Amino acid sequence: MRSLVILGATGSIGCNTLDVVAMHPQLYQVLGLTGATQVEKLFSQIQQFNPRYAVMTDAQAAHQLRQLVKEAGLPTEVWSGAQALCDLAAHPDADIVMAAIVGAAGLLPTLAAVEQGKTVLLANKEALVMSGELFINKVQQHGATLLPIDSEHNAIFQCLPAQLQQNTATQKLADFGISKLLLTGSGGPFLRKALSEFAHITPAQAVAHPNWVMGQKISVDSATMMNKGLEFIEARWLFNCAADDIQVVIHPQSIIHSMVQYTDGSVLAQLGQPDMRTPIAHALAYPQRIQTNVKPLNFFELADFSFSKPEPERYPNLYLAIAACGYGQGATTALNAANEIAVAAFLAGQISFTDIARLNQAALGRFATVKAPDLESILDLDQQARAYVHDQLKKVS
Ligand code: NAD
Ligand code: MG
Question: Which residues take part in binding NADPH (predicted)?
Fold first, then answer.
């Protein structure tokens, strides 16, 4: 029986994780669940999984949740605030921590789990994009186990030799005969939309992903392909490789979740339904396999597979992220922060879809060469880039 903490339990990844856990009560015990503001949702998860701890970061929401838990006579302790997330992630009784908070807010709690040498299941790609080398060094230093949840990185991981899986962050891909990582992406909802219509794209259109059901921020990132850009940076750190070792391939059917190309001409791919319960179950049980409610692939029902190169005019954000990866840590930290503010402004109806790339490009231009070698400077740069984009937003409105 392994004990599990889910950071971001009320989100899309959090709910999918609980769906897998519910099928295996003999294998996983839920120690703690966290959410930001969704009281009812966290309360119903508490009723079902009876965790020892729950965290609501918002103090008022925590107060409401405490009342509900008390009235229901449940033993769950409710904590609140950002520090409580770190305390729960570092709890001595936690074996596995699912890092599924969205955005930079997930960095410190995820690092708190890493510093206690936990098995960390990483969905929160922004944490790694923000802090890259520092994050990976901490994983090494504290003997944590890092398993990727992002479907592409989980697919790549599954296509690696077992010996390389033992430590992907420090061994060399070339030593295992690997020549390229092929990162697939669907191209999002606007793969075929006329570029002249991009300025009029609405938030509702942008979050309606053709294949995946996800949180709002990652859905917009998928539409701009910033998501693939963040994943490019994520892959660079998870698999200890250079930008030249990674190629982005558009595959609109989202059945191949990524591939690994070997020097002998072989390409290994991981396939499956576009359903996050598969990578979640893989990482939860690794190196075993467990059942999920995911429908098996039926090859006689599948559409033809197609592949193409992402067009730079259609997906400027992807290319900004690849450029940032080349600049280094300051650039990726700043770009991630800028993108969070730009996407939030787009979702709030303050700016157009095409403004997202414009703001990201401006922030990258401003901060690309800033060095951010330690946690303090990373957090400081994150704040500076956010403030910079907020200033630009004031100029727009
Ligand atoms: P979501 O918006 O559905 O859920 C986010 C979770 O984080 C919620 O529980 C929310 O309460 C919590 N949260 C948000 N802001 C917070 C804050 N400031 N402090 C504390 N908690 C906060 O997002 P999601 O789609 O589940 O994505 C979560 C992470 O997983 C993201 O980093 C995303 O890129 C990554 N991811 C998601 C998917 C997917 O299919 N949804 C796939 C791959 C990777
Ligand atoms: Mg992904």
Answer: 10-13, 36, 124, 126, 215
Question: Is the CB–ligand 1 distance for residue 80 below 6 Å?
Answer: no
> Residue 37: what pLDDT?
95
Q: What would be the CATH architecture of the domain defined by 173-273+310-395?
A: Orthogonal Bundle (1.10)
Across the range 114-118, mean pLDDT stands at 98
> Which ligand gives the minimal distance to the CA of 229?
2
Read off the pLDDT of each residue in 301-307 and give the average, rounded to a whole number. Answer: 92
Ligand 1 centroid vs 56 CA: distance in angstroms? Answer: 14
Q: Exposed, middle or buried by CB within 10 Å (0-12, 13-18, 19+), for 85?
A: buried
User: Using one digit for the tens of pLDDT, what is the confidence trace for 368-383?
Assistant: 999 999 999 999 999 9
Pick the CATH number of 2-148 from 3.40.50.2300, 2.30.30.240, 3.40.50.720, 3.30.780.10: 3.40.50.720
* Residue 205 burial (CB count, 10 A): 14
Q: Please state the rounded mean pLDDT for residues 105-120.
A: 98
What is the position in ligand 1's atom list of the atom closest to the CA of 230? 34
347 lines ligand 1 (CB under 6 A): no
Task: Give pTM, 2 decimals.
Answer: 0.98
Is pLDDT above 70 for 397? no
Query: Residue 113 carries which side chain, given as an amino acid letter?
Result: A
